[in-house]
Specification:
The protein contains five helices and ten strands. By secondary structure, the protein is of the alpha+beta class. The strands form three sheets. A four-stranded antiparallel sheet has the order 2-3-1-6, with helices on one face. The protein is elongated, with a radius of gyration of 20 Å.
Length: 155
């Protein structure tokens, strides 16, 4: 994977392209080479599972928005290794997940709300409250928190 080191640029969504229905044979290098014809690439990545197997989708971030648009117009619906791919603008979804735990126990949960506003309201209302003589901690969910929770629950 080639990646822009500045997370603000990477996470901005500027000139980001989402590709789905990729053949499992497509790796990071092949994805980068396919899209490099349209302009300078800041980052590119094929999503993989825990075993390193391609999940069939990936992302490319260009230096310029017009390069991203040209790639979308040229490659959307095209066959790449005998599979018709979807190529479109990547739209970042707002986080609606909240991590909830009781401090003095190993109890925890992850709640996914319908909207970011509902999730924020739950954090404001529940964080620091006392339930069954235990303080409830409620904060914005993240992949790191969920992974840590899974590891704690397995030990």
């Amino acid at each position: 994977m080639f990646s822009q080191r500045d997370p603000n640029i990477r996470k901005s969504g500027y000139a980001n392209v989402f590709i789905k229905n990729l053949d499992p044979a497509i790796d990071n290098k092949a994805l980068h080479e396919t899209f490099a014809a349209f302009g300078s690439i800041l980052s590119s990545k094929v999503a993989t599972d825990r075993n390193g197997q391609a999940k069939g989708f990936g992302y490319v971030q260009f230096e310029k928005e017009e390069d991203a648009q040209n790639a979308i117009q040229s490659l959307h619906g095209m066959l790449i290794t005998d599979k018709q791919v979807y190529v479109g603008k990547h739209i970042r979804r707002p986080c609606t997940g909240q991590y909830v735990t009781k401090v003095q126990t190993r109890c925890f949960g992850f709640v996914n709300f319908k909207s970011p506003d509902a999730a924020s309201a739950a954090v404001e209302k529940l964080n620091g409250t006392i339930n069954d003589y235990k303080v409830v901690v409620c904060r914005k969910g993240s992949e790191e928190i969920r992974k840590g929770s899974r590891a704690e629950s397995q030990s």
